[in-house]
Amino acid sequence: MKDIKVGSNRNFGIVFSIVFLLISLYPLLKSEDIRVLSLVVSFIFLILGIFNSKILSPFNKLWFKFGLLLGKIVSPLIMMIIFFFVVTPIGILMRLFRKDVLNLKFNNKETYWIEKNGPKSKMKNQF
To answer: Is the pLDDT score of 114 beyond 70?
Structure first.
């Protein structure tokens, strides 16, 4: 498995500054007051992010590990959902209609080779 690098503290600080700014301004949509604490946290993240502070390193690593954990949980979950809600019903329908798309059924033919008719390949207008 190849090593994955943690993002820069600058990017981390700026992104979280934007996130907390949006959280602080969200109540304006409902004609409520701005969340001052979120605005202050946003400003702190912005200042630390601009100056690329080492103070953000533990938070950046923690956020990175949280992302890896989410990746280990969400990816298999999404693949399971796709398998059980897309691939399995298609397989059941193919069995109900007795379709053998891959030609896997046993038959008494001498060979399983498929004879091709027409030209072997068309190399005209490749590009």
So the answer is: yes
